[in-house]
Amino acid sequence: MLSRLREMIWADWIWFPEGHGWADLTDHDGKVYPKTQDLWATIPIALCFLVIRQIFERTVATPVASLLGVTDKKRVRASPNPFLESYFCSTSKNPAQSSIEVLSKQSGCSERQVQRWFRRRRNQDRPCKLKKFREASWRFTFYLLAFFAGLAALIDKPWLYDMKQVWEDFPKMPLLPSEYWYYMIELGFYLSLIFSIASDVKRKDFKEQIIHHVATISLISFSWLVNYIRAGTLIMLVHDSSDYFMEAAKMFNYAGWRNTCNIMFTTFAAVFIFTRLVILPFWIIHTTCVYPLSLYRPFLGYYFFNGLMFVLQALHIFWAILILRMVVKFLPGNHIVEDERSDKDESESEDEAGGHEKFQNGHVQNGHTPLNNNHSKRD
Questions:
Q1: Residue ranges of region Disordered (predicted)?
Q2: Which of 229, 266, 306, 353 has its CA at a distance of 20 to 30 angstroms from the CA of residue 37?
């Protein structure tokens, strides 16, 4: 029963165009082709990335953070209060003013004390600046090295310049050693992001990041199985080309280097929009979605691969909107760019000075007074 089901799932007509099949990927005459079992190597590679990351963050990222002046602001911890803690964990982390009045009566604290407790408790759960800097520096290092390694692997390949070459002799294109390692390292890295997702900084687009990681892993794995490797290398190169600029902008933002952060973010925005909204859809997706129809009849694997491509493209449009929103805020006032996905600490300055909370329509404005997040340090 299981063997029959396996045969049905991996039938040639599902994953390959008519006249081709898994037999085309059998090694012969010194030519090597991708195999399903090769993907198992990505698991130990992902575990190695996790170990290397811990060493990197301690021995490289932390000293660099100190050199750039990244410091953590001391946070005042919320005093132990089982009643408010239960409400915080089970009901709401940011209660409305009406709820604060009820909690004040039930807990025996003043409304101001309840507001202050929730503010401090929310700040406890937010990642510190040093943690965010270390994470950004790790990703910056990987994306930078991966982009130039991928560029070196593809610089002499004809399909980098003529994308129709992606389908030449498909699926009988032999696997090159550079393609093998490019795939294994990229897939291993994205697996490591899945493994570390519980401890990484959680941003407002957390769900979209999960979808992106799953779609990317699925796309890379599937393209390996059916030998869409030429298209896969182009997709990975395009993705790596902009990400390291964003991570660099984050690093300089945490360090308070306003001008450098703005330059890096502006560069990132330009490269992201050009590569993800122009090159990817109008060159690469056109090559994987439109051009094959002139060569083969559509098959299920064709729909599956391009379906994943459109999921990624939808996420790119979503992130492009966030980027443009940040650019619009950044340009007129010449202020430092803030990542809209990030959670910022809430101020307690008014509590310490004995000021009054500002209310709007009966509610605290985001639980705290607005902050000027610009840093005094300049390049």
A1: 340-379
A2: 306
SS3 category, 343: coil
Answer whether residue 309 shows pLDDT above 70.
yes
User: Strand locations in the chain, DSSP E?
Assistant: 359-360, 363-364
Which pair of structure tokens corresponds to residue 6?
A: 């396996």
The pTM score is 0.77
Q: CA-CA distances (angstroms) from residue 27 to 34, 84, 179?
A: 9, 65, 16
Which structure tokens are listed for 347?
């101020």
Per-residue pLDDT of 210-225, as tens digits, reads: 888 888 898 899 999 9
Q: At 28, phi and psi to the nearest 5?
A: -160, 150
Residues 346 and 88: their CA atoms lie apart, in Å, by 16
Instruction: Report the chain's terminal Cα–Cα distance, integer Å.
Output: 68
Given a contact cutoff of 8 angstroms between Cβ atoms, the answer to whether 369 and 350 are in contact is: yes
For 215-251, b/e burial (b = at least 16 CB within 10 A) is: bbbebbbbbbbbbbbbbbbbbbbbbbbbbbbbbbbbb
> How many residues does the structure list for the chain?
379
Name residue, tokens 């790119």: 316
**3-state SS of 31-79?**
ECCCCHHHHHHHHHHHHHHHHHHHHHHHHHHHHHHHHHCCCCCCCCCCC
Nearest to 191 by CA among 37, 52, 48, 56: 48
| Pair of tokens at residue 367 | 């639980």
For residue 301, give the H/E element and its range. Answer: helix 300-333
Tokens of 17: 């165009």
State how far the Cα of 231 lies from the Cα of 219, in Å rounded to an integer: 11
